[in-house]
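Researcher: I'm preparing a figure for a lab meeting and need a structural model of a single chain. I don't have an experimental structure, so a prediction will have to do for now. The sequence is pasted below. Please return the structure as C-alpha cells so I can convert it later.
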Amino acid sequence: MEIVFSLASLTVAKVLQFSGLKRTTKMEEKALEVYDVIRSIRDPEKPNTLEELDVVTEKCVEVKQLSEDEFLIIIKFSPTVPHCSLATLIGLCLQVKLQRCLPFKHKLEIYISEGTHSTEEDINKQINDKERVAAAMENPNLREIVEQCVTEPDD
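Model: Understood. Here is the structure written out cell by cell.
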C-alpha cells in the first residue's frame, strides 16, 4: 500500500510539473518521497497516523543535496501536546522507518519543531544520537512498539 501511495504522489507531482502548473525541483521531489515514507507511521498511543494527527506535514520535510548521490534530510515534527511523553518514541520511529525505506544515500536530522514541546532541546539531542538510537532498538519492548508503529497493516 505504501508503494502505491508513493507512486501516486510522484505521478501527480510529475503530471503537474509537465502540465506547467507546478515546477518541482529535485529536492522537492526527494522531500515528497521522504514524506510519503513517514506519513503512514502510526502514533504510539492512538490508532491514527502521524499525518492524520498533523505531527508530520509535507512542510516539515526539507532535503538538501550534499553530493551527487547523498542528501541531508531534515524533519521537524510537532507533537500533539507540549508535554507529550512519547515525543522521543515518535522521533525513534521516524529514524527507523527512514533508515529502512529510503532507497538513496542520506544523512538524517530529526527535530521537534521549535516551541512545540517543553523539553525539545533534550529530546532533539536524544533522537539524533546514533548510540542512543541503537541502544533503544536493543530493548525488546521498545523495539516491539516501534515495529507496530512503522509496519504497514498490509506488511
